[in-house]
Amino acid sequence: MSGVRALRWFGGSRRRAVIGGGVLGGLALAAGLIATAIASPASPSTAVRSSSALVAGSAALPSTAGFPSGTGQPGIFTDRCGFSHEAADDPILAPNAPGTAMHHDFYGNTTTSATSSAASLVDGPTTCTTSADSSAYWTPVLYQNGTALTPGPALIYWRRPARDTASVQTIPTGLQMIAGNESATEPQSTTVTAWTCANQTGMAKATSVPHDCAAGSDLRLVVTFPSCWDGHTLSGAGQGNVVYRLKTGCPSSHPVQIPQIVFHVNYPTSSAAGLTVSMTPTMQGSTNTEHVDFINGWNERILTADVAACVATSTRCGPVTGTTATPQGPKAATRRSRSPRRTADHDPGVPQTTTS
Q: Where are the domains of the chain?
């Protein structure tokens, strides 16, 4: 069992690889196994919320004195959320139906399950670097030769989209979003899902499919979320409540610009051979279907304050920590972890997302 750990969640057990580099041993997949995505149950009722309510009850703005700001700055803060657990649950596409979804790796809120809602997430226990972020984040389990790879902590960017001078509003509590296409039959654009390498000398290229990394490096997945919201629909089940911005800004159908979330996660392998993702509770398939799901469980007053102080003012605030999500400044954002193979520590240079 060296290099493999057993995990238990909701009564199930599975083997997970935690070694890095090379091809991992495990059960071989049947040749050409591509699963059909499971049908989703009826979408939860659409919640309606006025965007004007988002400015109410804001906390005092955190101090950003001395941080780079203004024209040319990205307008960004970050937090890091560790891997919590695995389950065949999906509270967006398979709500209240535990064990019926593809196997997912969950980050952030440690209670996330098929029955999770905004009410159950906010102020809940979390693996994130700020206790103000009790959101649920999840990705399909990534396998190598049939063995599940244990992901490192996710680095999450909250940023202003490129070249956009429009106002930015906070993300409302309970907003659900899905970035990426779980039914994709060909590689997705690198402006949505991209693969690169962590801890590698020089800027690693971003590609639409996994590629080999230098020895000692980790494979990294980067997924960029839409940043234009329709202003009233919280449910993400139909994937129509948020869209990617156009070159000219948010479309009239989705006029509310929100911070763009960019999700980075490292996997402990430098080889792209034998990689598949979960597709159903029992089947695996192509990495073309990679995606990330999100339900906002932030303390809304604190998130609103950080968005106003950092994203909306084009200020580089770096990581936020503690109970009040206090910005630490850009120097801390580039500091390497003592265990760099387990973290994603910088933006790998994936292009800012726009559509024509």
A: 12-23+53-342
